[in-house]
Amino acid sequence: AENLSFWEACEELRYGEQSRIAEIVDSIYQQFLAPGATRWVNIDSKTMERTLEGIKTPHRYVMDDAQMHIYMLMKKDSYPRFLKSELYRNLLAEAIIPPETKKRVFPFMRKQRHSSPSP
Q1: Residues 41, 4: contact at Cβ < 8 Å?
Q2: Three-class SS string for 60-73?
Q3: 32, 41 in Cβ contact below 8 A?
Q4: What's the CA dihedral at 11, 70, 1, 4 to 10 degrees?
Q5: Which residues does the UniProt record annotate as the domain RGS (predicted)?
Q6: CA 44, CA 53: separation in Å to the nearest integer?
Q7: DSSP per residue over 8-77, as a string?
Q8: How many angstroms separate the CA atoms of 119 and 114, rounded?
Q9: Which among 36, 42, 85, 92 counts the fewest CB atoms within 10 Å?
Q10: Residue 116 pLDDT
């Protein structure tokens, strides 16, 4: 959950209001990257170093490396685990409507099948 929230926060930074950039960068740092952060995300040390250096002069792309790192973690780990989860299987089962319960939008347009008389 933290990884996805971090990714969304980075999207808000990238596409949000220019006047809020410093505020959003600080919020992302406090929530996800600071030591003891409540929603800490696991990024490698080089990415963390570049990100920490970048936030000294906040701009809308300062979290790009960290966001890409988290994206790849989700792509290679979180998402495949979700696809194998019981939660996903249950959601899928509820979303699929068996053919016999589907109603035709225009049932009168269905051709009646009649067997032709044999000669």
Answers
A1: no
A2: CCCCHHHHHHHHHH
A3: yes
A4: 20
A5: 1-92
A6: 14
A7: HHHHHHHHS-GGGHHHHHHHHIIIIISTT-TT-----HHHHHHHHHHTTS--TTTTHHHHHHHHHHIIII
A8: 15
A9: 36
A10: 57
| Structure token pair of residue 77 | 């780990």
What is the pLDDT averaged over residues 43-55?
Answer: 96
In three-state secondary structure terms, 75 is helix
pTM of the model: 0.73
The number of helix segments (H) and strand segments (E) in the chain equals 6, 0
Structure tokens at 48: 């963390």
Instruction: Give the pLDDT confidence of 52-74 residue by residue, as tens digits.
Output: 999 999 999 999 999 999 999 99
| Residue owning tokens 């999207």 | 11
